[in-house]
Amino acid sequence: MENTEIAWAHNTFNPWWGCTKIPGKDGRPSACDYCYAAMMSARWHRGEWGKDTERWFPSEAYWAEPVKWNRKATATGTRARVFCMSMGDIFEDHEALPPHRERLWDLIRETPNLDWLLLTKRPQGYRTMLPPDVLALPNVWPGVTMESADYTWRLDQLVALPAAGPRWVSYEPALGPVDFTPWLPAVSWIIVGGESGSQARPFDLLWARQIISQCRGAGVAPFVKQMGVHTVENGSPYPVKDIHDMLGWPADVRVREYPRSAVEAVR
């Protein structure tokens, strides 16, 4: 059933490609600075980055895939986690996107055996663009990206949502320490990872250890997705041959846990 290499999902679904980068606060680093999705889009000639650029939209056959995943999950009595979206932002304010968003909401309504992991850097969209009935579905997991403590306002908006599904955070790429404690356990899952690519910024192992400790103290699931290309420990480079290979990481950060889905919780 899997169509993705992302370690914490079974599938990815992108109703479009392309986005507008969000600059860092007061010129400080932002997760968007060296966006992997922008680089992949340029390589594959799918979508562009910028407020007034075109978005790329997939085929009808692509839109039919989640229905197949749902059918298989139903037949096997399992659930599949679908990450939406990796090649843009579901709540980007772009004139071409509203009809495609509405189609996405209909698709989510039609696939109750898929857990839809929604991710955004624009959490205000959960209230202004997501229909309340979709937010109330137990298979909808609202999530936000958090790269540093500059963006804790996203957590405030996330935990205030009247959502039925688990709330989660992608602390990736981690660019600075964050104390998530005030938002736990309202946030059920924190994914942490360093930055990849030739322009990757340092990833401190201390940040991963702090997240694991914070989660343990609140009964929340931590998931360490990857190290960074430039991983450091105690101010010195930490040798990592493969950022995705857990066997090459320190033993105490080889942690990958999942929250219990809202659907499973009531069974």
Task: Please summarize what this structure is.
The strands form 2 sheets. The chain has a 7-stranded parallel β-sheet with strand order 1-2-3-4-5-6-8. A 3-stranded mixed β-sheet has the order 7-9-10.
Report on this model:
This protein is α/β, with parallel strands linked by helices. The chain has two domains: 1-19 and 33-120, no CATH class; 145-267, no CATH class. It contains eight helices and ten strands. It has helices at 36-44, 60-76, 98-110, 125-128, 132-135, 152-159, 205-218, 262-265; strands at residues 11-12, 80-84, 114-120, 140-145, 168-171, 189-193, 203-204, 221-226, 231-233, 236-237. It has a seven-stranded parallel β-sheet. It has a three-stranded mixed β-sheet with strand order 7-9-10. Helix 6 (152-159) links the parallel strand 4 and strand 5 (168-171). It is globular, with a radius of gyration of 18 Å. The model has no long low-confidence stretch (mean pLDDT 95).
Shape: globular
Q: Which strand-content bin applies to the residues?
A: 15-25%
Elements, N to C (H/E): EHHEHEHHEHEEEHEEEH
Number of domains in the coordinates?
2
Q: Please give the share of residues in helix.
A: 25-40%
